[in-house]
Amino acid sequence: MKSSEPLRGFTGSRRYTLTVIPPLPQPVTTALAAGRLTHALCLEAPSPALLRDTAITLAGALLCRNGDGSLCGACPACRKVLVGEHPDLMLYDPDEDKDIYKKESLRRLRAELYRTPVEAPRKVAILQLAERIPAEGQNLLLKIIEEPPEDTFFIFTAQNRYRLLPTVLGGLPAADEGAGARPHRGGAEPGAAAVRGQPRNRRRSSQRPRRTKALCRG
After folding, report:
1. Fewer CB atoms near the end CB (10 Å): N or C, the chain?
2. What confidence tens digit (pLDDT) does each residue in 22-57 have?
3. Is residue 188 within 8 Å of residue 147, measured between CB atoms?
4. How many CB atoms lie under 10 A from the CB of residue 97?
5. What is the C-alpha end-to-end distance of the chain, expressed in Å?
6. Of 138, 155, 142, 143, whose CA–CA distance to 192 is shortest?
7. pTM of the prediction?
8. CB within 8 A of 141, min separation 6: which ones?
9. Environment class of 218 (CB within 10 Å of its CB; exposed 0-12, middle 13-18, buried 19+)
């Protein structure tokens, strides 16, 4: 894997495998089942590991071939998501590559999202710990977030979403202010806030964290 490329599959110690599937916030689950999930959303919690696992679970639900709004874990698409091998899932994680949020990398992300999906009817980009994206990088992504390619989804994660630029944060509807604030074994469960965008109406797409309330508007 070249430096500053999104994580797909694994290279050496960078392998990621989702062994425990965390529950999604209930408003997200409801929106998925109804086919009304907005094209971008933000998950917020203190634990980076829980954020990434929850984001991958949500991505799997969007890419699952069963189309019931959840990650089934059994279809070919879900199996690829679980081991990090789905070609239409891009995971940008600054803890794995400190250069992943440089301008050149984010420009490649924009170009990639305009390409046709390889296997699934949609593409999903996970921007882990998005508050680490420099201001210039956030501005680079602003237009594509506001006017995304058809059937493209963004999953932002953040330990503190208020560290995002006001221009990005301004597109966030009100979210449950308590989401992600309650302790849970080293990290609170993630709350979710929908980022500005039109709902996707045409298509539907041993330790368990407790569910939290969070608002996900369509």
Report:
1. N
2. 999 888 888 888 888 888 888 999 999 999 999 999
3. no
4. 19
5. 37
6. 155
7. 0.78
8. 106, 109, 110, 133, 168
9. middle
